[in-house]
Amino acid sequence: MAKKIVLSCSKCASRNYTVPARSEPGTRLELNKFCAHCNGHTVHKQTI
Q1: Model pTM score
Q2: pLDDT (tens digit per residue) in 5-30
């Protein structure tokens, strides 16, 4: 079973997205995604 990474909004801290895990365990993923709570595109960071 593939592991998943949870992404949370950097502004409101809501957890909006899940993505498949990559092979680089030392780095944290940051993507620019749409947040429905903030109603705009914000940086989403990988949670623990």
Answers
A1: 0.82
A2: 999 999 999 999 999 987 677 888 99
